Amino acid sequence: MGIRGLTTYMNWSYWRQWRTIEVRGRLIIDAMSVCFVIHENNRIDWLHGGQYWELRQSYKRFITSLLESGIEPIVIFDGIDYTGKKSGVMLDRKESARQAISDILDKDDAESNSSTGSSASRLDKQHDFSKPAPSQGSTVIPLFAQAVFCETLRELGVRFVYADGDADSIIASIANYYSCPVVSNDSDFFFFNIRAGYIPFYNLHWEQQPVTAQVYYYLYFVDNFNFKSLEVPLLIPAILGNDYIEPLNSPCLRGDIAVTLLKYRERRGGTRSWRDKTHELILYFKNFSSPDEFLNCISRCCLRNEVSIVEKNLEIAKDFYTVNEFSIKDIMNKSEMTTSNGTALPLWMIQQLRNGQFSLSAMAPVVFNGSVLPNIIDNPKRRSAMFIGLPIRRCMYTILLPLLEESYVHETVSVDFEDGYSSIACNAANEYFRFNLPSITDMEKISISCRIDALCFSLECSSGILNWFEDKWKLVVLSLAFWTKYAVPDIHLIKSLILCFIVCSLDRDPSSHMPHSTDADSSQNNDTLHVFSMWQCVYHDTMKLNNVLMNPLSFTTPALLFDGRLAMYYASLADINNIVRSELVSSLQLLALFKSLMFVCTESLKAATKDGVQYDQTVYFNLVPVLISSDSDEDDDSVSDESDIFDYIYD
C-alpha cells in the first residue's frame, strides 16, 4: 500500500527527525493496514485456512494495551470504492495472494508425494500441528480476518466506523478534527498534513506501558529537506506512483536528474538502490520553488505526453492528499448513498454498513452490479472453493434486484491457478420469479420470523431445526447443513469440523488440544483443507445473506468456531470417535450439541444423495477470462455485448 519503498527510505534518511511522544487520548487507527500488519507481525500460520482464535488474541493484546495506557482508539475501515479507480490494483493483489497460495501449497504437496509415495497411508508422515508454520515469505490474509477484527473491537467496546471508499484521506481529516495522531502502515500518510502527526505501526511501542511512539510531521519533513512550498513533496507520489497513480517511466527525466545531481553521484559512488533513487528524486525536487516551476522545467527536456502524465498525476495527488476536518458523527450521519441504478440506498443499509453489520462483499453488487469474490486458502489444483456458495449468492442477488442496474450480476472469481480469474453472470431476474424471497425495499416491514424463513429457504434447511439450538449456533447450523449437502464430505471430516467448532467455542487456546507430535498424511492435507475451506466460503456467503435480510440471526465470530490446524489435526486421526469422547466427556451438554449438529449433517447427506448433488460435478456456467491489469483507468467498454460473452446463464 502507498508508495513503493518510501517507508524504508524514511526510516533510513529521516530517523533523526522523529519526535518521541507518550501516546495519550484519542488515536486514529487505519483498520485495514493494522489488521494486515498484526497478522504478519505475529507470523500467524495461514496455510491451514486460518488461525482465528490466535488472530483474535493478537488483536485483543494490541487494543487492550492501548486502552490500559489511557488511549482511546478510533478505528476506521475502508468502505466501497465507488469510483472503481483502485479495482485494478486490488485485483493484482488478489492475483499475488492466489499465486502465493499456489506456490506454497503445491510445493508442500509435491514434497509430500516424493517422500511418502502414492501408497502412503494416513499415518505415514509426522507433522507437528502444535507449532506455528515456518515463515513462508508471503503472507496471505485468511477469509475472516477483517470480520474477526471487527467483532473483537465490538467485544472490547472500541469505536469503529466503515468509511466511503479508500479511508486514507478520511482518516487524516478525522485526525485533524480531533487533533490526534494516526497509526497506519501505509506510506501515503507521509504526505498528509496531519497536525498531530503520523505514527508508522512499527514506530508505535504498544507492548510497553506507557505506550510511546516516534511521530512524523509533514511540516517538519518539508522544513528538514528545505522544500520551498508545501505542494512540492506531492511531486514524489506523482512520479513514483501509488495505488491511484501509475509511476512515470521517463528516460528524459532520469537524464535530467543525473545531470543535476552529477556532483552528488560522484561523491557517493557505488551502485544505486531503490532507496538511493528515492533520495536523489527528493534532492532534485528541492531545486524547485513550486510544482509549476518543475513542470516548466521538464517541458524543455521531456516528451509532451510525459509532461501531460505528470500534470495529471499531480492533480490526482493534490486531490488525494487534501485534508479537511470532520468527525465520526459526520460520517455516521451521511445518509445519501446511491446504487448502480441510481436508487437511493435504504437508510438501514447505510447505518448497518457504517456499524460493520453489512458486509462490503454484500454491498458491492449494489454499487457495481458485480463483485470480485475474495480469495480463499484452498487446494490450488481444484476448482475454487468459492463456487460452492453460488446458490446462496443467487438468492442474495434476487433480494437485491430492485437496487441493481441490470438483472445480471457479474462475479469475478479465481477458478483455479492455471485458469486465473474469470467472469461469470447470475440472472437474478429468473430467480426472482422462481423463488418466493422478500425484496430489499420491503425489508423493514417484514417480520423477523419471515426473514429467518427466507434465510432457511435460501440455505435449503428447515427453519424448525433452529429451535434446537442457542442463538449463537443458528447461523452456523444453516451453514453446516448447506456445506454438507453440496460438499458431500466424508463423515470423518464432518465430525472433525464439528468437534473443532465446539472446542473453539470454549474460548481456549486451540493449540492446547494438540500434542506436540502427531501423525498426519500431508498428501491428504490439501484435499482436506479444500473441504474445510468450502465451509468457510459457505459461512461467508451465509453471513452476507443474513446482512441483506437485516441480520435476523446473530453472527458468531469465526474466532470461536474455526481453527485450521486444529481441524486438520482432528481430520488426521484414525479414530475420531475416541477423540470426540475424550474432548467432550466432561460435559453432557457439549456432547448433546455434537450429536445435534451431527444429526443436521447426516440429514443433509441424505438430501444430497436423494437430489444427486455433488459439488465437483456441478457445471454452473461457462467462464470468460479476466485480464489482470493495474491500470485502474482502463475502460471496460471492450466488454460490450453480454450475450456474446456469457454462453450460459442460469435459467
Q: How would you sum up this structure in a few lines?
A:
The chain has 651 residues and is an alpha/beta fold. The chain has helices at 6-13, 31-41, 52-68, 87-116, 145-156, 168-178, 218-224, 235-240, 251-260, 262-268, 274-285, 291-298, 304-320, 328-332, 347-354, 360-368, 390-400, 428-434, 448-458, 471-487, 491-505, 525-548, 564-572, 576-584, 588-611, 642-645, and strands at residues 19-22, 25-30, 71-77, 126-127, 159-162, 182-184, 198-200, 204-205, 212-215, 370-372, 408-416, 420-427, 518-519, 624-625.
Give a description of the structure.
It contains 26 helices and 14 strands. It has 651 residues and is of the alpha/beta class. Strands 5-3-2-6-7 form a five-stranded parallel sheet, with helices on both faces. Strands 10-11-12-14 form a four-stranded mixed sheet. A three-stranded antiparallel sheet has the order 1-9-8, with no helix packed on it. Helix 1 (6-13) packs across helix 11 and helix 21 packs parallel to helix 24 (576-584). It is globular. Mean pLDDT is 84; it is low at 115-136, 518-524 and 616-651.
